[in-house]
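Predict the 3D structure for this chain.
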Amino acid sequence: MKNTQIIENFIDTHKLNNLFSKENVNLFKFKKYSQGENIINAKDEVKHIYFIVSGGVDIHSFLASGRSIFINKLSPPEIFGDVEYLGETSMLFDVIANSNNTLIMSISFKAIEAHLKENSQLWRFLGVASIQKLLKTNRAILLKEGFNLKNILALHLVKNDHLINFKSLNELSKELNVSYRNLTRIIKFFTDSGIIKKDRKSIITLDKDAIKRYSKEI
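Done. Predicted structure below.
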């Protein structure tokens, strides 16, 4: 499938036709990334808004010590570069592909200014997307800083219908923004208490009432 057709399908699937017409498709660039590949780094000058077509990206922040902190995970049809565009700032975080099938389409700020500046629907879309993403990120940070990991894991189970599937515990620890060691410790606590059951790549709730009580402490 040609890149233009993939972009057209993405726009149709996610009902973005009020933002971009078929004539706008040629304004987009299209690129595939491998798992672990940096798409853009913190403090880089941002020149495009990026749309996630498939796969996904992890958002990281690096401390002065060099330690990486997982901030957020984005998946289709979420975007990045929008906050930096609207705020006229450099990239706030590192953006890393988390799948070998991460497909990204991007449109330059220059193209937006030249061809879409009068599209009020686009500006509304960017504003809403930016606010939703900031709220999601702030909530993740608040959960990390303000609550016990038992509560965070319990809430994650409740939100996912009491079943979490994961590629690896390392990936799950990144998603929850906790250390691998602390995650395994809490899983053992819930398992020993008969509240959950851990299979190879899934966590299943056995005592839903107990998990709900832990989740409601947040």
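The mean pLDDT is 88.
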